[in-house]
Every structure is written in C-alpha cells, then in structure tokens.
Amino acid sequence: MKYKIEFKPRVIKDCKSINKKILRLIFSKIEILSDALQGDVKKLTNYSPEYCLRAGDYRILFETENERIIIYRIMHRKEAYR
C-alpha cells in the first residue's frame, strides 16, 4: 500500500537547519516509509506524534491516519524526545 505523505509547516523550518547531504538521506527514508511503513520505525509510548523513523542522527516524528503519513518534525536525536 502506498501512503500519501503530508508535511506540517514546522518541517520546513526544521529542514532549513539541516545539511543538504543529510536531507537527501532523510527524504530517501521518507520515500521508503511511504511504500509500506518500512524502515527503522519505532512506536513511541506516551508521546505524540506516535511514531519515529531513524535517519542517521536525525529522527522523523510522524503519525498515520487511514492512508496518510503526517510528518510533524525532523529533529536531531538529542532534541527529538524532549
């Protein structure tokens, strides 16, 4: 099943501070994720958004609704779980 990817406005701000090489890695991981929630996906407990995808030292925080993946933040791992 192919998921539709949606980005929250905050993601654009997050991307401005990330190196372009790392951004390519992040977006390739998101593309793989859209195919079938594949990759290094972890369900978070007591945290919203409810899922996390690892991309190097960065974390992609997202939720799923029906056939959509909503990406809320892309953050360095030191900041992602605060």
- Name the shape in a single word: globular
Question: What number of domains?
Answer: 1
Low-confidence stretches: none
Please identify the oligomeric state.
single chain
The helix content is 25-40%
Q: Strand arrangement, largest sheet? A: 1-5-4-3-2
Succession of helices and strands: EHHEEEEH
Structural class: alpha+beta
- What's the CATH first level? Alpha Beta
Rg, rounded, reads 12 Å
CATH superfamily: RelE-like
Q: The CATH topology is what? A: YaeB-like fold
Q: Which architecture name does CATH use?
A: 2-Layer Sandwich
Strand percentage, roughly?
35-45%
Largest sheet data: 5 strands, mixed
Mean pLDDT across the residues is 92
Give a count of the beta strands, DSSP E runs of length 2 or more: 5
Task: Report on the architecture of this protein.
- The protein has 82 residues and is of the alpha+beta class.
- The protein has one domain: 2-Layer Sandwich (YaeB-like fold), CATH 3.30.2310.20.
- 35% of the residues lie in helices and 35% in strands.
- It is built from 3 helices and 5 strands; from the N terminus they run βααββββα.
- Strands 1-5-4-3-2 form a 5-stranded mixed β-sheet.
- A hairpin with a 2-residue loop joins strand 4 and strand 5.
- The N and C termini lie far apart (32 Å).
- The mean pLDDT is 92.
